[in-house]
Amino acid sequence: MYACGITPYDAAHLGHAFTYLTFDLANRVWRDAGHDVNYVQNTTDIDDPLLERAEATGVDWRDLAHREIDVFREDMAALRIIPPTSYVGVVESVDLISDLAARIRATGAAYEIDGDLYFSAAEAPEFGGISHLDRGEMLELFGERGGDPGRTDKKDPLDWLLWRAERPGEPAWDSPLGRGRPGWHIECSAIALDRLGPAFDLNGGGSDLIFPHHEMGAAESRCVTGGPNAHNHLHVGMVGLDGEKMSKSLGNLVFVSKLREQGVDPAVIRLAMLDHHYRAPWEWTDAELPAATARADRWRAALALGAAPDAAPVLAAVRAALSEDLDSPGALAAVDAWADAALTEGGTDTGAPALVRATVDTLLGVRL
Ligand code: 5CA
Ligand code: ZN
User: Fold this and answer.
1) Helices and strands (DSSP H and E) totals, the chain
2) Antiparallel, parallel or unpaired: β 116-119 and 110-113
3) Which ligand is nearest to the CA of 245?
4) Which pTM was predicted?
5) Which residue of 58, 170, 183, 213 has the fewest CB atoms within a 10 Å radius of its CB?
6) Which residue out of 10, 16, 211, 255 has the highest number of ligand 1 atoms within 8 Å of its CB and is therefore the one to mutate?
7) β-sheet with 40-43: strand ranges across
8) Cα–Cα distances in Å, from 183 out to 172, 179, 251?
9) pLDDT single digits (tens) 223-260
10) Which residues on neighbouring strands pair with residue 255, listed in sequence order?
11) CA 198 to CA 224: how far, in whole Å?
12) Which residue out of 209, 214, 249 has the highest number of ligand 1 atoms within 8 Å of its CB and is therefore the one to mutate?
């Protein structure tokens, strides 16, 4: 599977964490089923927002990226998110990305404007098949999410950049397309194609990436393979704060690293996120941490008992919930029911606490 990784110009917020938690659940379910999971995640270590933040704060863009990548990986480890099989940066992949851009150009689906290479949306069969938006919605989202619908010398406002010719003061690399740097979408289609091949099992990220990112990336991949990039797409609902999507550009952020600094137990942060189903957007509020802390306390008390009700049904219920579209709230409810019964009615199974502990640790990633 492939999950779109961070653009490392700021620390990871709860929205990022929720997206990677969702992929972590998929990873755990597959591993539990005995599969060998090849999980690839990119790092957008060169892009406009990173260069802008580096410029604004007087830091070298490479130093900024390295610093934020380190914090991100510490946060993910604290949240017990199993690392991908490979993290792949864009800077280390420039050759492979420019190679895909050159292959696309060779098919005739791309054209040049002053050294910038554009994918022609008119040359993308099945364009729209992932996002199902009308053209007006596409144009609006394209403008909001890194596209350039206002560039008037393109054939179609929706045509997107594959390769950006060198600009003064911007980093650039030599390539068959001239000196420049990759456009955004092609980094993911090139890295996924290289590491996972065509038609891998699961591609995704947050729902803000459905359009344009995943639609355009899929078109690039289809252009050279003739088929879908992935059999399934997973998009995680946006986590919001105060009525807005939590986003680095809006600045309404709750950082995982800040919560950790404040002494919040990462298992509690994880439990708070698990109480939301990945498909639905939700809001982080001040009620999240107290509720998750109370749940962790109840579970810990039940796990500390010498004997408790039989735990085999808990394991079965957690597996069943997760296999039903990663229903993490349903999985928590199954453990709640067991903990409540253990604490109020007691039980006779001396092995039960250990089995529940292992279930919660392995399948939900919560170590208590
Ligand atoms: N580097 C690109 C993907 S190639 C990117 O979108 N980076 S990011 O840092 O902006 O986001 C990293 C991941 O977190 C993406 O999968 C994105 O969809 C997801 N994400 C961003 N904001 C939120 C949010 N508020 N709620 C849930 N997921 C989010
Ligand atoms: Zn991506």
Assistant:
1) 13, 12
2) antiparallel
3) 1
4) 0.97
5) 58
6) 16
7) 86-89, 40-43, 2-3, 200-206, 230-236
8) 12, 13, 25
9) 999 999 999 999 999 999 877 777 767 777 899 999 99
10) 13
11) 10
12) 209
Write down the mean pLDDT value for the chain. 97
pLDDT, tens digit, for every residue of 260-272? 999 999 999 999 9
> What's the pLDDT score for residue 45?
97
pLDDT digits (tens, 9 = 90+) for 165-179: 999 999 999 999 999
Phi and psi of 241, rounded to 5°? -145, 130
Q: In whole angstroms, what is the distance from residue 189 CA to residue 160 CA?
A: 14
pLDDT score at 350:
98
What does the alpha-carbon distance between residue 181 and residue 164 come to, in Å, rounded to a whole number?
5
In testing the pocket of ligand 1, which one of 144, 208, 242 has its CB within 8 Å of the most ligand atoms? Answer: 208
pLDDT at 250: 74
Length of the chain counted residue by residue: 368
Confidence (pLDDT) at 346 = 97
Nearest-CA residue for ligand 1 atom 17 is: 206
Tell me what pLDDT residue 247 has. 75
List CB-based neighbours of ion ligand 2 within 5 Å.
4, 188
> How close is the Cα of 214 to the center of ligand 2, in Å?
7
**How confident is the model at residue 94, as a pLDDT?**
98
Burial profile 238-272: b = 16 or more Cβ within 10 angstroms, e = fewer: bbbbeeebbbbeeebbbbbeebbeeebbbbbbbbb
Distance 226 CA to ligand 1 centre (A): 28
Name the residue among 208, 209, 210, 228 with its Cα closest to residue 218: 228
Q: Which of 178, 149, 146 is nearest to 163 (CA)?
A: 178
Whether the ω angle into residue 212 lies within 30 degrees of 0, i.e. cis, is yes
Q: What pairs with residue 230 in β-bridges?
A: 200
